[in-house]
Amino acid sequence: MKKHIKIFDTTLRDGEQTPRVNLNTQEKLRIAKQLESLGVDVIEAGFAVASPGDFESVKLIAENIEKSTVTSLARAVKKDIEVAAEAVKNAKKPRIHTFIATSPIHREYKLKMTKEQILDRVKEMVSYAKSLIDDIEFSSEDATRTEKEFLVEVYETAIKAGATTLNVPDTVGYRTPNEMFELITYLKKMLKGLKMWIFLCIAMMIWDFQLQIRLRQFKLEQLRLSVQLMDLEKEQGILRLKRLQ
């Protein structure tokens, strides 16, 4: 079966966090239309709850994009999810992208939550997002520093709650490409019994000379790469769209 690599572009969300980059609503719409013309599958239009301006930008993009899926980021928090749903509801292909941190350091010092509390939150918030928008993406922030067995529990919980896309982010650039390959292979094996399509997003530090061999080695039913335009990135972990030419 022919493999299809889906392109998820986060220029308008992660890219705008680059120092000295401040796009207005019309500039974001122009970029979104250009991304659509390039054939980008998913446009992460922003973080709708972050500000009224971000909400309006996501909403405008959602109302004007015809072919690409339009998504807004949202923490695994009810208000975030409600605002994201409101912003993308008029899109031809709306999506909510919700996330929660899962690594030990985040659980202990940022969230102050146990593993059980994390799993309960994932179940509750993914289910709630699913009740508002059918297409739900779930990310495990700092996935690559999360215990592998617990990571499987988290993703399994998200899938059963209604997530159709899984994001496996290497948030702090912790893993090499080979290690990411091994992690994705492990997750694919452990989650294969679930009767649904799963898109695995590789948000990682990937060196240009390894790109071609990495794409060949990922023998997944569906592969999705996170990218950004040019050099707009607050961290070195997001692949540049131009490298996929």
Automatic annotation (TrEMBL):
<dbReference type="InterPro" id="IPR013785">
    <property type="entry name" value="Aldolase_TIM"/>
</dbReference>
<dbReference type="InterPro" id="IPR002034">
    <property type="entry name" value="AIPM/Hcit_synth_CS"/>
</dbReference>
<keyword id="KW-0432">Leucine biosynthesis</keyword>
<dbReference type="GO" id="GO:0009098">
    <property type="term" value="P:L-leucine biosynthetic process"/>
</dbReference>
<dbReference type="InterPro" id="IPR000891">
    <property type="entry name" value="PYR_CT"/>
</dbReference>
<keyword id="KW-0100">Branched-chain amino acid biosynthesis</keyword>
<protein>
    <recommendedName>
        <fullName>2-isopropylmalate synthase</fullName>
        <ecNumber>2.3.3.13</ecNumber>
    </recommendedName>
</protein>
<dbReference type="GO" id="GO:0003852">
    <property type="term" value="F:2-isopropylmalate synthase activity"/>
</dbReference>
<keyword id="KW-0028">Amino-acid biosynthesis</keyword>
<dbReference type="InterPro" id="IPR050073">
    <property type="entry name" value="2-IPM_HCS-like"/>
</dbReference>
<keyword id="KW-0464">Manganese</keyword>
<keyword id="KW-0808">Transferase</keyword>
<feature type="domain" description="Pyruvate carboxyltransferase">
    <location>
        <begin position="5"/>
        <end position="245"/>
    </location>
</feature>
<comment type="pathway">
    <text>Amino-acid biosynthesis; L-leucine biosynthesis; L-leucine from 3-methyl-2-oxobutanoate: step 1/4.</text>
</comment>
<comment type="similarity">
    <text>Belongs to the alpha-IPM synthase/homocitrate synthase family. LeuA type 1 subfamily.</text>
</comment>
<dbReference type="Pfam" id="PF00682">
    <property type="entry name" value="HMGL-like"/>
</dbReference>
